[in-house]
Amino acid sequence: MARRGESSGDPPRASVTLALAVCLVVAGCAGFAGDDGGARTVNPALAETPTATPTPPGGFPAGVDRDGVDTEELIAAHRAALGDGSWTVTLTRTVVGENETIEQSQAVARVDGPRLLYTFERVRGENRLATAHWSNATASASRRESWRGNVTLSANPAEAGGPTGLDPTGGAWLSAVFVDMRPEYAGTEQTANGTVTVLEATAGRIERSGVPDRRQVRLRARVDGAGVVRSLVLQYDVFLGDDPATIRIALRTDAVGSTTVPRPEWVDRAFANATGDGSAGNGTSDS
How far apart, in whole angstroms, are the C-alpha atoms of residue 40 and residue 70? Predict the structure, then answer.
């Protein structure tokens, strides 16, 4: 099996998607990451060897066996299992200092066939940054709210699709979470979604160019029988300047087969301001 960190020959679009995901997951940003940089994992081995458990009912998920996890194969199976159906993927990132929550970000992708609603919110104290993007089979619209509270709308009545760099399956977010980690099979659990395969990993310290060193890194993921990564939690300690903080990243895939995509009320206003020839609107202020 190929392990994380080996070259995958990703095309440019996939590289951009992963760069954006790494930025969101590791740094919490809403824009693009720069150079993905090199990384060095210090003490990457699991603190304890997972207890031997029976093979999951129906066998191991794609990419998983007792010798390790091929994260690329695991993520490919996750994407394939979702296919062109419906699902909701939620990614949250919480930064907690010694006495308070410093920042919280949440990205949600709701998908139902060709319909998509993607929302992103980042909160620091009383300040808030937010974006939303809606699309169906033929058109798309976006809403952006700045840190200052200014809201702009834009729309393209003749072009569908999601924001640049978005992987609505959550696959790119998973790739970003698994970067520098070496998960192992740790057994099975019973959940509301049936029996899931549990993957775990820990690392004493991970060094990556451009971001603070991550320490006491702990990862736990649950994969269902169809290959969907139902949940994942990554937690680690960092220093932000001289101040210690703990970052917790959680990904959840739910409402598989039952997600519906609403049409937000701002979409009609965005289309009303779009140009008549079907080209994109120029970012009309929305009060």
Answer: 19
In a domain, 273, yes or no: no
Name the token pair of 111. Answer: 């998908």
Q: Specify if 259 maps to a domain.
A: no
**Quick one: CA torsion of 238, 129, 234, 214, rounded to 10 degrees?**
-20
Provide DSSP, 152-198: EEEEETT-----TT--TTSHHHHHHHHTT---EEEEEEEETTEEEEE
Q: Identify the domain containing residue 113 by its residue range.
A: 12-254
Which residue do the tokens 């590791």 mark? 26
Q: Which two structure tokens, joined as six digits, stand for 43?
A: 């003490």
Q: pLDDT above 90 covers what percent of the chain?
A: 63
Over 70: is that where the pLDDT of 278 sits?
Answer: no
**Cα distance between residue 153 and residue 255, in whole Å:** 29
Q: What is the CATH number of the domain that holds 219?
A: 2.50.20
CB 273 within 8 A of CB 285: no
* Overall number of domains in the chain: 1
Q: What count of Cα atoms within 13 Å lies in the side-chain half-sphere of residue 191?
A: 15
Tens digit of each residue's pLDDT (9 = 90 or more) over 142-186: 999 999 999 999 999 999 988 888 899 999 999 999 988 999 999
Single-letter amino acid code for the residue at 174: L
pTM to 2 decimals? 0.81
Give yes or no for residue 4 having a pLDDT over 80: no
**CA-CA-CA-CA torsion for 32, 77, 114, 26, nearest 10 degrees?**
-20
Percent helix, strand, coil in the chain, to 5, is: 15, 45, 40
DSSP 8-state code for residue 276: T
Report yes or no: 227 and 61 within 8 Å, Cβ to Cβ.
yes
